Amino acid sequence: MEKREALYAGKAKSVYVTDDPDRLILHFRDDTSAFDGQKKEALARKGMVNNKFNAFIMGKLEEAGIPTHFDGLLSDTECMVKKLDMIPVECVVRNVAAGSLCRRLGVEEGRELTPPTFELFLKNDEQHDPMINESLAETFGWATPEQLAEMKALTFKVNVVLKQLFKDGDMLLVDYKLEFGVFHGQIVLGDEFSPDGCRLWDANTREKMDKDRFRQGLGGVIEAYEEVGRRIGVAFD
């Protein structure tokens, strides 16, 4: 497989085309950002940690029958993925109240949400990823009702798998976001799953072990990511 020119550079990953029109290469960089890019920093080892963490999680989801774009690791910071026609709608599941949910609704942080909530957000940096609903997604052509139904079903299937995985590591999967795309007519999980895109707390102390450590200036960001991985069996060496 030949790596060619860069297709896109996001906040923390770069995407490269290859000589296979159906495959891309993702490069996980050490860059970290928050608050729509207002806070930025390069954290040593982050690219490697997130790349290997994501590979482990995608493998677990594939084992559970959830289709993903992940094809395999290429190096410490790169992996091969299927080229998806991305759907610009983020799916968010919340198992425990935190973050924007608390700010919007005045709910106390840490409240268990039964059943878990499901929300949709438009992936649009300029508009700060506004919250949307199925009607808006259909009207503006962001996704079809059939796609939205499949995305929701897969998002909750992911929740079942990962809640138990992190529970076995004495952690709470507080919330997370997923992105999907279409590959040869099939809805497939894309982007990444790492502590950058979810909230994880120690089940006993409620210590934050995710990107909130960067957002809130708590320090020890990569150390926390590595501890999360260690607890669930990710090999970083």
Task: Please sum up the structure shown.
The protein is α+β, with helices and mostly antiparallel strands and 237 residues long. 30% of the residues lie in helices and 35% in strands.
What report would you give on this structure?
With 237 residues, this protein is of the alpha+beta class. The longest helix has 24 residues, at 145-168. The strands form three sheets. Strands 8, 9, 10, 11, 12 and 13 form a six-stranded antiparallel beta sheet that branches. A five-stranded antiparallel beta sheet has the order 1-2-3-7-6. The protein folds into two domains: 3-82, Phosphorylase Kinase, domain 1; 85-220, D-amino Acid Aminotransferase, Chain A, domain 1, CATH 3.30.470.20. It is 30% helix and 35% strand. The two termini are 25 Å apart. The chain is globular, with a radius of gyration of 17 Å. It contains six helices and 13 strands.
The biggest beta sheet reads:
6 strands, antiparallel
Distance between the termini: 25 Å
Percent in strands:
35-45%
Q: In total, how many beta strands?
A: 13
**In sequence order, what are the helices and strands, one letter per element?**
EEEEEHEEEHEEHHEEEHH
CATH architecture of the largest domain: 2-Layer Sandwich
Top-tier CATH class of the largest domain: Alpha Beta
Secondary-structure content class:
alpha+beta
Topology:
Blueprint: E1 3-9, E2 13-18, E3 23-28, E4 31-34, E5 39-42, H1 46-63, E6 70-73, E7 78-82, E8 85-96, H2 100-105, E9 112-122, E10 131-132, H3 134-139, H4 145-168, E11 171-183, E12 186-189, E13 198-202, H5 212-215, H6 221-232
Antiparallel strand pairs: 1-2, 2-3, 3-7, 4-5, 6-7, 8-9, 8-11, 9-10, 11-12, 11-13
